Amino acid sequence: MRILLVGAGGVGDAIAKVAAKRDFYELIVVSDYDFSRAERTIDWIRNRHGEAKASRFLAAKIDASSAANVAELARNHNITHVVNAVEPKFLPTVFSGAFTAGANYIDMAMSLSEPHETDPFHQPGIKLGDAQYAVHDQWERAGRLALVGVGVEPGLSNVFARYAADHLFSEIDEISVKDGSNLSVTDDQGNEIFAPSFSIWTTIEECLNPPVLFDRSRGWYTTAPFSEPEIFEFPEGIGSVECVNVEHEEVTMLPRHIRANRFNFKYGLGREFIEVLKLLHKLGLDKTKPHRVRSAQGPVDVAPRDMVAAVLPDPATIGPRMTGKTCAGVLVTGKDFDGKDRATYLYHVADNAETMAEYNAQCVVAQTAFNPVIALELMAQGIWRGAGVLGPEAFDAKPFLDLMSSTHGYNERWVAQERLPASPLRHP
What we know:
CATH class of the largest domain: Alpha Beta
Low-confidence stretches: 423-428
Structural class: alpha/beta
C-alpha cells in the first residue's frame, strides 16, 4: 500500500504520526501546499521513532485545488490510496484527482451541501455527500473504493451504529450521535479564550446550515440551526452539556445501510459558541463569496469566512493551551434480542493531556486521525474490501473495534454504556 496524504495540518499531521507506529504500508507521501509543514511532520516522526520509520515517509508540495496536480503527484509515486485531510471545500478536486490517478480514496468529511432554495428549514436541498454518492457506479465500474466519512464523526460514530445494529439490537428506534466535551483553551495570561478545536471554516459550515434529520416515515428533512436543545450527560467526568441539532454526514449516510426509525446528530456546542456563530451569521462573516477589501497593498478579494479563520487560533497549535476531554458517541435506543427496551451509548473519549504526550496533537484532531489509519490497515489486510462510494457503516464493525482497542493494535478504549431506556430528555 502506497499512500498519498493530502494535507499536513492538524488532522493530517496526526494521521501521519499515528501511522508511524504501524507497518501495513510501503510509503506515505505527506503533502501540503506549505512544504515546510509536511517536512515538520516527518521530522517529528524521525525524532520520536528513528530514521527507519521516517524513511517510509516522503514530503511533497501539493495544490489541493487542482485535480490535475493531485493526479500527477499520485501517479509519480505509484499511489494506491489517497487520503484527503484538507478542508471540505477542496474535496471535489482531491476526490476527482484520486479517481483520475486510478487510486482508492479516503476522506473524513464529505462533499458540501446546499440548502433548499425556497424552503431550507423543512426540505433538504443538496445533502452532504450527495455529489459523491452520485458517482458510486463510476467508482464501482472502475473497481476502486472511495471510503468516505471515516474520521471520528462521521467515521467511528458510523462504526458504533453498525456494531449496535449487528450485535446489540433486534430493532432500532433511534440513532442519535452525541458529541460533547469539557475542553478549555487559555491565552498566555491564563484567561479562557474563544478557540474552536476544529477548523472554524468547517464548524461554521456544519453549524449554520439547516440540520438534516431522517425519519423512516418521511425520509430526510431539515430544521432550523441549533434546534431541539437537550441536556445530555457525557461520561468520564465531562458531565452535562447542552446539545443541539447540527448538520452532519451521519444522518445522510447511516439510513442507506442501517434500518432505524430516526437518525439525528446533536453537538454540545455550549451557549457562548452558539451566540458567536449567530453573530458571525448576522454580520455576514460566515459567507464564502469573496468581497473586495482595501488594504495597504491595494484592493484584495477576501472571503469573510476565510478572514475569520485567519484571525482565530489555528486548531493545530492550541494543544499546549488546552485542557479537558472530548467524547464522540452514539446513543442507540430500541429493543434487545429478548424484545426488551434498551438504550446504549457507545463512545470513545480522548484526553488532551494524553494525546499531546503521545502525538503532540490536541485531542480533537488526534481522535479524528486514528480512524482513517485503522480503516487503511483493514483495507491492506483485505478485511474491508469493496468498490464504489461507501461509508464505514457498509462494513463489518467488529474487526475495526477489535483492532482499535487491542493492545497489539491502536490501544484505544471504547465503551458500550447502558442507559435507562425511558430516561426523559432534560431541556434547559
